[in-house]
């Protein structure tokens, strides 16, 4: 179960990073996210 959960968390992390990377700087700013913060935000959402 731990391996499956870790894999699912990793998938969620990658999807979140991908979605945020596709956003424009303006869209990210509207959400209060800097481009440098994408990985931190994705990590927090996934784990």
UniProtKB/TrEMBL annotation:
It comes from the Bacteria. Residues 3-39 form the YjiS-like domain. This is Uncharacterized protein YjiS (DUF1127 family).
